[in-house]
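Table S4 entry, Zinc knuckle CX2CX4HX4C domain-containing protein.
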Amino acid sequence: MRVKVQIDITKPLKRWLRLKLDKSDDIVAVGLKYERLPEFCYACGKIGYGIKECLDKEARTEALEGKIMKFGSWMRAPILDRVKGRYQYHTSGSSTDRERLMEGSREEEKCEPSCQEAGS
């Protein structure tokens, strides 16, 4: 699913959302990926600078020491190009990531044209 959002760049990026999808009380956690995301800090999650310029010394030190990071390149969505009515994916991920993306593109091909334009 794709949605357009406004981001407060003074706060860290959100990594996931909790959604209530139906009338039941079930809540689903959905991981977020961002398209057209400018430079952001993998230590603190704020947009506008990289990890070396991070003002949060504790987060920067933990990230540079290789501890588990809350933010990273996995938050970037692959770039979609429309080529002759079809989607073409550009990614630098592993072959497993590319296979997963190709499965998604096959599902989009099965979708009605109005469905693709709506971003489903």
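The beta strands are 16-20, 27-31, 79-83, 86-90.
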